[in-house]
Design brief:
The protein has 184 residues and is of the alpha+beta class. The chain is 26% helix and 16% strand. It has five helices and eight strands, in the order αααββααββββββ. Strands 3-8-4-5-6-7 form a six-stranded antiparallel beta sheet. It has a two-stranded antiparallel sheet with strand order 1-2. A hairpin with a 3-residue loop joins β1 (97-98) and β2. α3 (76-84) crosses α4. The chain starts with a helix and ends with a strand.
Length: 184
């Protein structure tokens, strides 16, 4: 190993990754969540290219105005997934339902939806009756199996608090024949 490689390795090993991770988690937890009403519209006006000005500075033709509606709002289920990503790495604590104390599986789901104004029970079995069952999951649906819940993130992926002392994770859906619950 040459001297440059040794210096780079020494610098990397001197970085306290746990401290950096803790600071990042605090920043994410403190960040505001913005919601927009489903019927919000944002007109945008712009001149089309090709308008000309004469020698006197007057426009040769009236500018065309194009109005464009704002993009469709983000569905609440997708908002829940976006919020849940903020809590990756939070430690699983049985009975916990906040980032500061840790979260269990139902505590994570309850906390995420509470950030969006949706009240859910802190019990995986009670969550089974908190919405309606669907055959094909969409992002934000609860993935329910006896004794456990996770949040469907789309494309066969879930976000879950899965085992005591372990961090909340984003992973492939592993449940066999789960029940999908849509709460909004």
């Amino acid at each position: 190993m040459d001297l440059k490689t040794e210096v780079k390795t020494a610098k990397l090993n001197s970085v306290d990754l746990n401290s950096l991770t803790a600071v990042a988690k605090q920043s994410v937890a403190a960040a505001p969540t913005v919601t927009v009403p489903a019927d919000a519209k944002m007109p945008i006006e712009m001149e089309t290219l090709g308008t000309t000005k004469g020698a006197d500075g007057e426009k040769g033709q009236a500018p065309a105005v194009v109005s464009v509606d704002a993009p469709d709002p983000v569905p609440v289920g997708q908002q829940a997934v976006n919020v849940a990503f903020n809590y990756l790495g939070i430690t699983y604590v049985l009975g916990g339902n906040s980032p500061s104390e840790g979260m269990d599986c139902s505590g994570l789901i309850q906390y995420v939806y509470a950030q969006l104004g949706v009240s859910l029970p802190h019990s995986s079995s009670a969550m089974l009756g908190s919405g309606y069952q669907v055959t094909y999951p969409e992002p934000g649906d609860i993935v329910w199996t006896p004794g456990h819940v996770a949040l469907y993130a789309g494309n066969g992926m879930i976000i879950e608090a899965w085992a005591a002392g372990m961090p909340v994770r984003y992973t492939e859906m592993w449940q066999n024949s789960p029940t999908f619950i849509r709460v909004v």
